[in-house]
């Protein structure tokens, strides 16, 4: 069920330049079941900005009724959000969309998790849930530069973790695919979230195994009513809505 | 609730709150949040004879107190709207106002003839004001003679009353209203979006793939109020007002301008519960203002 709730800020901090980690508390968390879903966040109390901001869920904790999101403060709305302090509340609608299928990999098998930039966060909950069911996880995380890297230690605590930076200031120089080409082909499935060029590269080179892609698009309603975040899913007028059919799709299900 | 009931051509509304076309799909998504039977009516997404994918993305851009959209009339086409969407909606006790669109008069006639036969379609909303498609849409809504002609053609085949949705992108809105009245319209819905644009700070190019989009939200409320104020004094047609409504106070203001019912659009995206919230808040607001019935507010600005 989708819930709208005014949630309490538990903690809020800057992890890397303009990258914030915000933890909120409320009953809405009870509805969070799959990794890879998102919430739609009202960043101001007034009419400006008007629309909510879709932000992926990085992790949730049912016991504490809390969840964490990591976002980039790039535009007006997310910059306003980044000023919220621990005495304040945030208006959240969620959880929204369909996340990553944890059951695509069995206990004892290996899964490859590939993230790029601000696409990295939803892989954290996924990784935790895969590890909890006995799956071996390998993470390949791409960032622009060393200072932009976040959650390296958190991911490393769950499994093998490789970092790529475009400028080579940390880990492998280049893109996630530069790390992947040297990895042993031992994994059963790939889960990914990141910029469209990265997803396209994965689809082009790694479609021989089950490959799940989490997409991003400007959204209006976030619930499937406004048709703002639609993508083609084949010939003619066939389509998928990223907000409510996705944001996670199996490679080939939609045209990137 | 009798404070809120409204009678309009073809429509017996429990209350005057209607989700606006294009902002509510065919109701399925919002039925997750509340019982659609609570609404006065539903204006469903524009229906064209054939399925349409619509425009490339990005299709939306934000502006101060508003948003631009260029969806491009995406819809599953007449056949599916009737067999799937309207059938599903018929399980709810709510009249449907079917928004119809096309690229030529024959398209409007085809959709009007067939969709008006559906038992839960109580009125049509003739969309001659969509700014986001290359052919049709707004081209019918900016020339009074063409608007009159398409209104008449649709009236001739529709088995339910026809409301014409007016575009604000004209020099003389009263002239347009009078033209569709002469064409036989039973009512007006106004206003559709205002054509606008946003540019990307780094690339310098339009944010929306269609380049321009329709501006909606609180930013356009004063324009809508002014146009309803002018038109309601110059025609005898009832007006369903829309343009930036987000709360019960806005609804009263639209009634004062001359509306007899209202539609709520963009606000649904911000708060999916906005329509039932407004419905719940209206009776107390009417009490506070000293009205026994909401219809007493209509046209108060000029009466």
Largest interface: A-B, 32 and 37 residues
Strand order of the largest sheet of chain A: 4-3-7-1-2-6-5
Low-confidence stretches of chain A: none
CATH superfamily of chain B: Aldolase class I
The percent of residues in helical segments of chain B reads 25-40%
Main CATH class of chain B: Alpha Beta
What is the level-2 CATH architecture name of the largest domain in chain A? 3-Layer(aba) Sandwich
Query: Treating each run of at least 4 consecutive H or I residues as one helix, how many helices of chain B?
Result: 9
Quaternary assembly: heterodimer
Measured as a percent range, the helix fraction of chain A is: 10-25%
Instruction: Look at the structure and give the mean pLDDT of chain B.
Output: 95
Radius of gyration of chain B: 18 Å
Secondary-structure class of chain B: alpha/beta
Number of strands of chain A: 16
InterPro entries (chain B): Aldolase_TIM (IPR013785), DHO_dehydrogenase (IPR050074), DHOD_1B (IPR033888), Dihydroorotate_DH_1 (IPR024920), Dihydroorotate_DH_1_2 (IPR012135), Dihydroorotate_DH_cat (IPR005720), Dihydroorotate_DH_CS (IPR001295), Dihydroorotate_DH_I (IPR049622)
Binding site for substrate (chain B): 45, 69-73, 127, 192-193
Pfam families (chain B): DHO_dh
Protein name (chain B): Dihydroorotate dehydrogenase
Descriptive account of the structure:
Chain A is α/β, with parallel strands linked by helices and 256 residues long. Chain A is built from five helices and 16 strands. In chain A, the strands form three sheets. In chain A, strands 4-3-7-1-2-6-5 form a seven-stranded antiparallel sheet. In chain A, a hairpin with a 4-residue loop joins β5 (59-61) and β6 (66-72). Chain A starts with a strand and ends in a 6-residue tail after the last strand. The mean pLDDT of chain A is 95. Chain B has 303 residues and is of the alpha/beta class. Chain B has a single domain, classed as Alpha-Beta Barrel (TIM Barrel). Chain B has nine helices and 14 strands. Chain B has helices at 78-89, 105-115, 138-141, 144-157, 173-182, 221-234, 248-257, 267-270, 274-289; strands spanning 6-8, 11-13, 17-19, 42-47, 60-63, 66-69, 96-100, 121-127, 162-165, 187-190, 194-196, 213-216, 239-242, 261-264. In chain B, the strands form three sheets. Chain B has an eight-stranded parallel sheet with strand order 3-14-13-10-9-8-7-4. Chain B has a four-stranded antiparallel sheet with strand order 5-6-12-11, with no helix packed on it. In chain B, a hairpin with a 2-residue loop joins β1 and β2. Chain B is globular and about 50 Å long. Chain B starts with 5 loop residues before the first strand and ends in a 14-residue tail after the last helix. The model of chain B has no long low-confidence stretch (mean pLDDT 95). The chains are: A alpha/beta (256), B alpha/beta (303). At the A-B interface, β14 of A face β5, β6 and α8 of B.
């Amino acid at each position: 069920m989708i819930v709208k709730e005014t949630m309490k800020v538990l903690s809020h901090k800057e992890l890397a330049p303009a990258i914030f980690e915000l933890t909120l508390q409320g009953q809405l968390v009870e509805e969070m079941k799959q990794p890879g879903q998102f919430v739609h966040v009202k960043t101001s109390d007034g009419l400006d900005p008007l629309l909510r901001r879709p932000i992926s869920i990085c992790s949730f904790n049912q016991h504490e009724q809390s969840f964490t999101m990591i976002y980039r403060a790039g535009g007006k709305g997310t910059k306003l959000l980044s000023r919220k302090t621990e005495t304040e509340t945030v208006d959240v609608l969620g959880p929204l969309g369909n996340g990553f299928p944890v059951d695509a990999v069995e206990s004892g098998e290996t899964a490859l998790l590939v993230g790029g930039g601000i696409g990295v966060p939803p892989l954290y909950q996924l990784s935790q849930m895969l590890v909890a069911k006995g799956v071996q996880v390998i993470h390949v995380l791409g960032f622009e530069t060393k200072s932009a890297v976040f959650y390296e230690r958190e991911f490393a605590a769950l499994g093998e973790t490789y970092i790529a930076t475009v400028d080579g200031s940390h880990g492998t120089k280049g893109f996630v695919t530069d790390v992947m080409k040297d990895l042993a082909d031992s994994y059963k499935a790939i889960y990914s979230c990141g910029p469209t060029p990265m997803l396209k590269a994965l689809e082009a080179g790694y479609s021989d195994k089950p490959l799940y892609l989490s997409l991003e698009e400007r959204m209006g309603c976030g619930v499937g009513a406004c048709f703002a975040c639609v993508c083609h899913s084949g010939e003619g007028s066939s389509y998928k809505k990223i907000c409510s059919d996705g944001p996670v799709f199996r490679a080939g299900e939609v045209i990137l | 609730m009798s404070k809120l009931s409204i009678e309009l051509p073809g429509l017996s509304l429990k209350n005057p709150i209607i989700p606006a076309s294009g902002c509510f799909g065919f109701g399925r998504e919002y039925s997750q949040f509340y019982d659609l039977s609570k609404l006065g009516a539903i204006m469903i997404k524009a229906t064209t004879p054939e399925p349409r994918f619509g425009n490339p993305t990005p299709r939306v851009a934000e502006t101060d107190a508003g948003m631009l959209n260029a969806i491009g009339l995406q819809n599953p086409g007449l056949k599916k709207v009737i067999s799937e969407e309207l059938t599903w909606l018929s399980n709810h006790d709510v009249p449907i106002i079917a928004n119809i669109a096309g690229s030529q008069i024959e398209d409007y006639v085809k959709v009007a003839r067939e969709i008006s036969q559906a038992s839960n379609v109580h009125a049509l909303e003739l969309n001659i004001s969509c700014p986001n498609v290359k052919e049709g849409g707004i081209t019918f809504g900016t020339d009074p003679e063409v608007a009159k002609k398409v209104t008449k053609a649709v009236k001739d085949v529709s088995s339910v009353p026809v409301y014409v949705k007016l575009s604000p992108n004209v020099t003389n809105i009263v002239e347009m209203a009078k033209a569709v009245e002469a064409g036989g319209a039973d009512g007006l819905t106004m206003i559709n979006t205002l054509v606008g644009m946003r540019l990307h700070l780094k690339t310098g190019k339009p944010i929306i793939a269609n380049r321009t989009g329709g501006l909606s939200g609180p930013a356009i409320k004063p324009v809508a109020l002014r146009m309803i104020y002018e038109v309601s004094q110059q025609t005898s047609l009832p007006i369903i007002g829309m343009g930036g409504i987000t709360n019960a106070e806005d609804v009263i203001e639209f009634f004062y301008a001359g509306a007899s019912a209202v539609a709520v659009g963009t606000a649904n995206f911000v708060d999916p519960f906005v329509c039932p919230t407004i419905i719940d808040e209206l009776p107390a607001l009417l009490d506070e203002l000293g009205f026994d019935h909401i219809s007493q507010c209509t046209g108060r600005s000029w009466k």
